[in-house]
Design a protein that fits this description.
Blueprint: H1 3-9, H2 11-26, E1 32-34, E2 43-45, E3 51-55, H3 62-67, E4 75-76, E5 82-85, E6 90-98, E7 106-110, E8 117-123, E9 129-134, E10 150-153, E11 162-168, E12 173-175, E13 177-181, H4 182-217, H5 220-239, H6 242-247, H7 252-277, H8 280-283, H9 285-306, H10 310-338, H11 342-365, H12 372-429, E14 440-447, E15 456-460, E16 466-474, H13 478-493, H14 502-513, E17 522-530, E18 535-541, E19 546-549, E20 555-558, E21 575-579, E22 585-589, H15 605-615, H16 621-636, E23 647-654
Parallel strand pairs: 1-6
Antiparallel strand pairs: 2-13, 3-4, 3-6, 5-12, 6-11, 7-10, 7-13, 8-9, 8-11, 14-23, 15-16, 16-17, 17-18, 18-21, 19-20, 19-22, 22-23
Helix pairs in contact: 4-5, 4-12, 5-7, 5-12, 7-9, 7-10, 9-10, 10-11, 11-12, 12-13, 13-14
Amino acid sequence: MPFFLSFKRNYLSFFFLLLLFSQTLLYPETPTILLSENHFQGHQRITKQIEIWEDKSGKFDFDWVRYHSKELPFQKGSSDYLNYGFSKSVFWIRLRLEKPLKIDPLFLLIKAHNIDYVSFYFSDAFGKVITKKTGHFVKMPDREFPHRNYLVSVPEDSYGKDVYIRIQSDISLQIAVDLVDLKNIHTIDYHEQWFYGLYFGCLGIIILYNLAIAFFVRDINYLFYIGYVFFFGLGQMSMLGFSGYFLFPNSRFFMRNGIPLFFSICMLFFVFFASSFLKLKDRLKIAYRFAHILAIAIILNVIFAATGEIYISAIVLSWLTSILSGFIMIVILWGFYKRIKSFYYFGAAFFILMASSVVYSILKITTFETNAFLEEMIFPIASLVDITLFSFALADRIQLLRLEKDNAIEQIVLHEKERQISKDLLVQALPKAVPYIPSLSIQIFIQPMKQVGGDFYEFYSPNSSELGTLVCDVSGHGIPASLVSAMGKVAFSTQKENIFSPKRVLEGMNRILYGNCTPEYLTASYVYLNTETSTWRFGRAGHPSGFLQRKTGEILTIHPQGKVIGTFPEIQIEEIDFPTKPGDRILLLTDGVPESFNSLDEMYGEERLLDFLKKNANLPGDLWVKELLSDLESFSGKGLKEWEDDITFILLDLK
């Protein structure tokens, strides 16, 4: 029969066959992954052989996907390691396995550690669906196989039938799909756990070593560094799936939130460490302020992670990592430009960390092609080198601190020698005897404090009824102040003919000392007292007031005008005189008395001094001195030898 007649009779059958053929072209069957007994070695990456469909709506369940499977645009895997970045989509994987008879039971392994939901759907010979679930929301003991990756066995009856895998995660998604047998699972786990055990063991040793050093050196940088390494280790364990397996097998919170939470806290410690170690507060204030802004942003991200906002927290973490890397690199380049040694070790360490962090962050934010090395190996290796170099930087800091300590001790020794010399000069220069005036009682107290200053006093008494009393305070401390004190005594000794006039004495001393004691200067009070004529004259040059307390209890605060001595070519001293009577009391002092401070930073002040004078008006001079010292100690909360400034006062009691 002619072919065209045969075609005419069977055109319906031919059309039906053509329709089936076209359907096959439009909706091809799931490609079968053939496992050759001669080539399958117990472990095979099948990511390029699977088919994937992205459900952007995330609303379809397994039954719908299976029923419409031939209509859905499943795409073949494009690489051995698929990278989908941050996505709210649900990803469906479809594959079919053809198992030769002699191959042992097989397992599907999803090579990833940060997936919220992983559901496997297998069909048996009777069409019954076997569902196996894993992921962050399934506790480790509830999984078919507790494993740092996502591992399930392939049911014997599911070979030759479509297998579906549903994957959804709020954290950046990078996956590979492996087919393995039991022997290779153990082999892979053994090698990986040996390597990562060594890695985390090194981190532990670094933490313990630096913790011991921190205990002895008491340096806050070590605490920041230890916090950084500790939470970095927890973050790495979470990212590699070990924290859920070893540390938190029953905690969905830490299995799911651990990566952004631990890495955010780690980053916070690193910001503190970098800011403190590089001394940004003193060296680069704008960078110090920016570091605080970064710290606030990181703290907010910690809150996001702790409250379950994983999607936001993970994205922000990736961006903060890139921003922090760029910021620290700019700071390090500035330190290189300034040739600051502490920046060199830090810069070498951070460059390695920055390079790996930027690569890793780019892979998480984007969908660039990735691989097993970039996903699992680059960060641990780079971080271990980085952390070790940071340890070297801290060790170099210890050496620097040791040198600074040695220099400080040397300076203390030199300062103590200078202090002793100053004290000896001051003590030797003080009057060896108190003038004898029959109708006058003189009480003197002088106490150089922690840093010997230039407080001194001098008397001149030409006869038994006249007395000139000078009290001075030299600016500064140490040997220079002692030398100026000595010059002040010499200058006073040239004014003996002017004993009756405070104005002449102080102005005369200024003319002698001007230009000879720069940059130091003197403040001074001078009193002339004549017991025969009952005369008291008082003048001062930038010095605290004098006090005249009458026998009746009345207190006169005397503060004539006058500039300091040694700074100006000429000064004008105001001179004030008062008649005196038996029983009157005159007090001269330096600023160490009214300017004593307590723990609340309050000053003793003139008001408290006046109250003291009123309350103790009837005390004899020697008891009066002891009571004033006791009152000052009680107010300041410090012992006499702990005061910061010199204390000098002279009490003149008219009998």
